[in-house]
Amino acid sequence: MRPLFLIMLVALPACAPGALPGLRSTIMPVSAQDNARRGAVEIAVKGDFPALLSDIEAGGGPSLERAFDAAGVPLGDRPARRLQLSGDLALYESNPGALVTSLLLWGG
User: Fold this and answer.
1) Quick one: the chain helix, strand, coil %, rounded to 5?
2) Which of 11, 44, 54, 107 could covalently link to 71 via disulfide, CB atoms 3.0 to 4.6 Å apart?
3) Successive 10-residue mean pLDDT values, the chain, 108 residues
4) Is 28 helix (H, G, I), strand (E, B) or coil?
5) Is 48 exposed, middle or buried (0-12, 13-18, 19+ CB in 10 A)?
């Protein structure tokens, strides 16, 4: 019973490709638009990573806004996302890829 549940849990995201905007299952083909968006977010995050971390710690700033813009994070969602980022700052300090993934997930 348990292996079947795990298989269904893993397969479920493939059934709902729009459930995780910005992230696609490995079954779905990646579009040029998705690649361009991911690339823009990676450049915004990794291009000036120390300044971005400082902005997160300060609760906002130009580097963080550029990353939000690249990911397409809605303006109304940004205050809550700033709080989430500052709460998980230790994770992002050691893993810029996690920050890229979070931004893509929150973006539209």
Assistant:
1) 75, 0, 25
2) 107
3) 57 55 61 88 95 95 96 96 95 94 91
4) coil
5) middle
